[in-house]
Amino acid sequence: METEVSIVAFSSVAQGGLGLVPPKLNEPVMLSARAKEATGLSRVVCDWLWPEARVAVEYDGRDSHASPQQQARDARKRDALRIDGFDLTVITSSQFHHVTQCTALLLGVGCRVGPRKRKLSAEHAPRHLTLRKQVRAHHREHFPFRFKKSRP
């Protein structure tokens, strides 16, 4: 799913994407002594990072961030980044599936990391939905094991 979010965010507006300035992906960040003291972490890896703007985005998938242990690690990581002055946005699987909310959230990130873009035109919406459908279809075809429903 993180790949789907990336394609939607960084593809050009003409292709139906949001045209955000591409970040560094899975980029390590060395933390300050203050952040280490508060969280026990000396280094974290950000899903998306714009180091010059001190902006980070974390994607929390439904499965990989569900356990109490992972949630505690995620909280420490976020605290450390905030202590060190990073503007942090978290995108969840649920948010990604809500097209309007996800678009607003990602465009908000875009305003903080790159030149201000013009408002998306009405013609963009059908292209955007088509891109999302194409990406999801590709993902389902090539990674079917990711879409199997788990049984209780």
Report on this structure.
- There is one protein chain.
- By secondary structure, the protein is α+β, with helices and mostly antiparallel strands.
- It has one domain.
- Helices cover 47% and strands 18% of the residues.
- A four-stranded mixed sheet has the order 1-2-3-4, sandwiched between helices.
- Helix 2 packs antiparallel against helix 3 (68-83).
- It is globular, with a radius of gyration of 17 Å.
- The mean pLDDT is 88.
The assembly state of the depicted protein chains is single chain
Beta-strand percentage?
A: 15-25%
Low-confidence stretches: none
Radius of gyration: 17 Å
User: What is the total domain count?
Assistant: 1
What is the percent of helical residues?
40-55%
Q: Topology as H/E string?
A: HEHEEHEHHH
Shape: globular
How confident overall, as mean pLDDT?
A: 88
What is the count of DSSP helices, taking H or I runs of 4+ residues? 6
Query: Cα distance, first to last residue?
Result: 22 Å
Q: Can you summarize the main beta sheet?
A: 4 strands, mixed
Structural class: alpha+beta
The strand count comes to 4
Query: Can you list the strand order of the major beta sheet?
Result: 1-2-3-4
Which key phrases capture this entry?
152 residues, alpha+beta, four-stranded mixed β-sheet, 47% helix
Quick description:
The chain is of the alpha+beta class and 152 residues long. It has six helices and four strands.
List the helices and strands and how they pair.
Blueprint: H1 2-10, E1 24-30, H2 33-39, E2 43-50, E3 55-60, H3 68-83, E4 87-92, H4 93-97, H5 99-113, H6 124-142
Parallel strand pairs: 3-4
Antiparallel strand pairs: 1-2, 2-3
Helix pairs in contact: 2-3
